[in-house]
Amino acid sequence: MDSVTQAALGAAVAGMIAGRKASPKVLVAGAMLGTVPDLDVFIDYGDPVSDMVKHRGFSHSLFVLFPFSLLLAWCWHRWRPATAFSFLHLWGLVAACLITHPILDAFTAYGTQLLWPLPVSVAVSSIFIIDPLYTLPLLVTLLAALLWRDRIASLCKAGVILSSLYLVWSVVAMNLIEQRVENQVAGTALEGKPVFVSPTPFNTVLWRIVVLGEDRYWEGLSSLLDESDTVDFLEKDRGHWPLNDKPSTLQALERFTRQFIRYEENGSQIIATDLRLGMVDYLPFRFVFASREHHADWQFPLPVQLNSPEVRIKHLPSLWLRLLGNQEIDADLCHVSEVCHDSAPPSS
């Protein structure tokens, strides 16, 4: 999630756990602790793919954050022995502020290595990386807590409960969409194929669906407000890696994305694109993994990330109408891409 949300969550959790000892200083400390795991963004792993797949790694691991929280609590208690908190109370507060950060991140599509160094990435994909409906309850109750300081703990608790209920709702909504897709592809050639479902930006009403085939993939939108449960899929070329050799960085990206990758040979470059993040042709994570000059042999330099496509403001009203259940707008959204075309899932 974004830094504002993580800071707000850390502050609210700190205020809630501090109880009667909660104060504005505790909220500030909680906000700072809530952003600590994301400091790994300042680490350069040598190339953009490694920076991507190793983000939310060790700094988001429960195996690291638990002992780190113990160390922080011990240092604080040793240097500030007059603190109002007992050691165990302080440790619980620090640990909760740190650990709720990666747990929340695990609900996004990007994925979080909660069990690093084990090669396990958790990505529930039920909430977008920025969702005002999750963040606003935290911000509103924190503002109220600063105004009514005798009720800091109870107000912070209310904010955490409200935002957590919204998170639970996001999982319920995602399961509803997944059931729609499962019902639609049943008995077709897409039955049993990998499916990726994630919310579109800033909401949990309109969802993006990607069904992965061997050399094709199908992308569609489904809103909880749709009158029909049928998803109008766009069939698109997935491509394949054309060479025998495969760079280790590409193998890492394949594991990270669970194979949800599109390959394309663009003249003197071979490009791999993460299909999970973005929509239609607004796919920001595109990397050049091989290049050559004229007809020379392919070379595998360090991967280079291509510039993200610009978001066209004129398409935002269409997305809003689609969220409200206007399924006729799917044809207009298809025009965002010059290579897509309407296609139902292939029959068996």
UniProtKB/TrEMBL annotation:
Keywords: Hydrolase, Membrane, Transmembrane, Transmembrane helix
The organism's place on the tree of life at top rank: Bacteria
Annotated signal sequence range: none
Pfam families, per database record: YdjM
GO molecular function: hydrolase activity
Bilayer-spanning residue ranges: 58-76, 88-110, 122-148, 155-177
Stated name of the protein: Hydrolase
